[in-house]
Amino acid sequence: MKLSEKKLCGKTVYDGKILKLEVDTVELPDGATAQRECVRHSGGAAVLCVEGGKVLLVRQFRYLYGKELYEIPAGKLDGGEEPAQAAARELKEETGMTAKLSPYLKIYPTPGYTDEVIHIYIAEDCKRVGGQSLDDGEFLEPVYKPVKEVLALIESGEITDAKTVAAIYKYVSETRI
Amino acid sequence: MKLSEKKLCGKTVYDGKILKLEVDTVELPDGATAQRECVRHSGGAAVLCVEGGKVLLVRQFRYLYGKELYEIPAGKLDGGEEPAQAAARELKEETGMTAKLSPYLKIYPTPGYTDEVIHIYIAEDCKRVGGQSLDDGEFLEPVYKPVKEVLALIESGEITDAKTVAAIYKYVSETRI
Predict the structure, then answer these.
(1) Residue B102 half-sphere exposure toward CB, CA atoms < 13 A
(2) What is the helix (H) or strand (E) element at residue A37, kind and residue range?
(3) Over the stretch A64-75, which tens digit does the pLDDT of each residue have?
(4) Are A36 and A5 contacting, i.e. CB atoms less than 8 angstroms apart?
(5) How far is C-alpha B12 from the chain's CA centre?
(6) I need a surface site. Which of A23, A144, B14, B134 has the fewest CB within 10 A?
(7) How many angstroms separate the most distant Cα atoms in chain A?
């Protein structure tokens, strides 16, 4: 069965700093029409850095959940930026580190309403080269946590960020920790 | 360091079928103000069902990416619905199966701009009790794929859905497949 949907028309209802919201009318496989609510996003890049059995995380207040979350260092691609370049930039800005980065995992966070792609890299040869250099309005703290503690915090529902959870379980499944 | 942000005011810029978009003005930890673009979502529920080394997936066209994706069965919580109830309902609607469901993993898909929580359950004792009963405008096909094939498709970037990737790697990390 062919499952595709064809755009008939669309309108932009909001164009903001980190996302654009479009509402499109589409033709369904059976010829009927439906509306699709589309969050357009430039994409994200993240870095899994594990050294000596410890994971580099950042503690950050996330307004949408009204609490602090632990996540691997990450951020949004700036206009036209390559994912690897964004990953290296975010790692340096958020933690003051540089590293050799290799592609590790690509995820679509929630495909029902956003087109974001999150590109996750794995770090080797991490070096501290300076302090943080955060964007205006960005507040976060880097912290190292043992892989086993991170797993326990995922199990207890205290670490929940999808890119962090996916990357950590991939790492554990491959390294047999 | 205390990292919280306090809402000063907000407005709803869109209120749709699957999401609401609010733009809030917040006070930052240093007293400055910033805007937060907030996608409000009722939450999702998903089911990891592995039987005889095969994972139950659904193949579905995702308009936001313009292609078909493979994902574990999942859907949105209807108003006031409990996550476990939504997981059972979606499993039945999308695949015609019922199962004993246990909480498995909770993820926040992309905490920078949505408040969605995805509740993932693991299935035991799956039974086919009928055919699909899809919502209007929903088209998808259930398919079983071996765990090893799913891992290969994640590695090659063909399976990308975050809830699916996280659940599969958790499963593999725990079962040592």
Answers:
(1) 3
(2) strand A33-40
(3) 999 999 999 999
(4) yes
(5) 24
(6) B134
(7) 58
| Assessment of whether the complete model's pTM goes beyond 0.90 | yes
Closest-CA distance, A125 to chain B, in angstroms, reads 23
B residues 92..111 contacting A (CB < 8 A): 105-111
B30 to chain A: nearest residue by CA? Answer: A137
pLDDT in tens, chain B (177 residues): 677 899 999 999 999 999 999 999 999 988 899 999 999 999 999 999 999 999 999 999 999 999 999 999 999 999 889 999 999 999 999 999 999 999 999 999 999 999 999 999 999 999 988 888 877 777 889 999 999 999 999 999 999 999 999 999 999 999 865
Sheet with A33-40: list strands edge to edge: A6-15, A20-27, A33-40
Half-sphere CA count of B1, side-chain side, radius 13 A:
14
- List the structure tokens of A110: 């929630």
- Name the 3-class secondary structure at A174: helix
Say if A20 is an interface residue toward chain B (CB within 8 Å): no
Closest residue to A162, CB basis, from B30, B137, B162: B162
Contact B100, B122 (CB under 8 A): no
